[in-house]
Amino acid sequence: MLSIAGLAAGYGRKQILSGIDLEVRAGEIVVVLGANGAGKTTLLNAVSGMCRINAGRITFKGTDITAMRPDRIAAAGLSHCPEGRQIFQRLTVEENLVVAHVGRGGKSFETLREEAFALFPILRERRNSAASRLSGGQQQMLAIGRALMAEPDLVMLDEPSLGLAPKLITQIFQIVLDLAAAGISILLVEQNVRLALELGDYGYALESGRLRVEGGAQKLAADPRLAEVYLAGG
Ligand code: ATP
């Protein structure tokens, strides 16, 4: 589904990532771990065309997307749910869904909206509320609902559990599992290491912009090098 080979990327002249090789297979949940500043968000930005790529190749469903514009990458079926959610605060819940509908896979807006409301019933109740009036958890649900309006084959989620109460985290993670079960591949950046590795199939840990350790989720959870990644800091 997604394949990254020899990626080096950064912002302007500042190189953040180097030597990154990563694979996400169809329907798989792949987790990206690492301390603050390790480069996790930059990795997602590189995939979605939002930072400078200095070397390497990114392919999505067999197409080279390395030099593609962000809107084209999204239109190809790769949705990015950025850190901090970045929904339109002044628009209502429903309007946020409307603007995210790109008519990619042929489903009507109404069908996709109903699918999003089925996943997150609270969004139906709050459909006419301004996004700014939603709780943090509801905003996260809206951000995921919005990503799904593009009928993606792969969704990248950047710290969806950030700032949420444990009950809501469980709910969001259950949705992530449901999406994967429905065949959508997931690339998940998470600070919550234990939960993320319970949920995921495979994980990569970054340290200072490089891959330090990778492996099947269970194996990685037990790998002492994973703790070192966090002790070493960014
Ligand atoms: P966090 O969990 O804190 O978000 P992260 O692993 O996602 O951490 P990144 O946000 O990718 O890390 O940041 C990696 C490095 O890139 C940091 O040193 C950061 O200061 C730098 N950086 C991030 N965004 C920019 C930017 N727009 N311009 C220049 N440097 C940036």
Automatic annotation (TrEMBL):
InterPro entries: AAA+_ATPase (IPR003593), ABC_transporter-like_ATP-bd (IPR003439), ABC_transporter-like_CS (IPR017871), BCAA_Transport_ATP-bd_LivF (IPR052156), P-loop_NTPase (IPR027417)
UniProt cross-references to Pfam families, sorted A to Z: ABC_tran (PF00005)
GO MF terms, alphabetically ordered: ATP binding; ATP hydrolysis activity; branched-chain amino acid transmembrane transporter activity
Keywords, comma-separated and alphabetical: Amino-acid transport, ATP-binding, Nucleotide-binding, Transport
Annotated ABC transporter domain residues: 2-233
GO biological process, one term: L-amino acid transport
Domain of life: Bacteria
Keyword Ligase tagged: no
Signal peptide: none
Family that this chain belongs to: Belongs to the ABC transporter superfamily.
Name under which the protein is recorded: High-affinity branched-chain amino acid transport ATP-binding protein LivF
Organism: Methylobrevis pamukkalensis
Lineage of source species: Bacteria, Pseudomonadati, Pseudomonadota, Alphaproteobacteria, Hyphomicrobiales
